[in-house]
Amino acid sequence: MTTGNHSRVRLGTSDLSVHPLSLGGNVFGWTADEQQSFAVLDAYAAAGGNFVDTADFYSAWAPGNTGGESETVIGNWLRTRGNRDDIVIATKVGLHPEASGLGAATIKAAAEASLRRLGVDHIDLYYTHRDDDTPVEEFVTALDELVRAGKVRAVAASNISAERLAEALAFAEREGLTKYVAVQPHYNLVSRATFEGPLAEVVAEHGLATVPYYALASGFLTGKYRPGGTGVDSARAEGAARYLAEPRGPKVLDALDSVAADHGVEPASVALAWLAARPTVAAPIASARTVDQLPPLLAGATLELTPAQTALLDEASA
């Protein structure tokens, strides 16, 4: 399925216009080598995709890696394809082994390192990867300086509490500094409390966009992991399997199966469509190791659920 003609969505209060499915770069340089990564990126772009998500930390956890491998792969792809202006690149600061935390000096140095690995002169969307005890005044000011220097177009926050998000927004507003335009929370059908509630309320109040990660719950919402199943060959199998032990896990799978059958699509498409239709959500993030894994993800960007189907999923996931 192609979504080449699918409309773009505006990312919060920014001037960034993005595809409603963000391609996760966490697998690049980890479970997908450069050749496989290029194939996935090519297929995503050919289908109209333009929103690629990475971090300076990806893929530091893999044997032999030091962090930044995903950015390097994406940078090599941009250079060989000559398509920089067509792609919205999101990356993050704060978790790299050699640049951890949100201190001003760390943010400045980490941004320069990301620009080098990506081979670009600006980052489109720059996230604080995980909040810490750095005063909001310090990191908000540091991010503003990057925007004023033309090195970053817009800024966003991942893994932040409602209170800290509100504090950062209030400080930026008061001082006339660059404000967050989006948040990237852990959010999916089997993990709703990680976003819904106070955080979602702050996001809506300030007109921010939501770009959820773990949109498919480490693969659980693809339907590959079933009660009594033998599992699948995946680096994420253990993370996905734990949802089967929760009462709502099998209930959500049953609801996904029902709706997927109605539309003749895969459960992953339904899970992404449900997420994409939630208030403030602009583009769920999902990753693919192979080109074959991409079509059901892209299908989720165009699938429209009926009110009854949405209600079924809401009830199963409550």
TrEMBL record:
Keyword match Cytoplasm: no
Single annotated GO MF: oxidoreductase activity
GO CC terms in record: cytosol
CDD domains according to UniProt: AKR_AKR9C1
Keywords: Oxidoreductase
Residues covered by the NADP-dependent oxidoreductase domain: 21-317
Cited InterPro entries: AKR_Detox_Biosynth, NAD(P)_OxRdtase_dom_sf, NADP_OxRdtase_dom
Protein name: Alcohol dehydrogenase
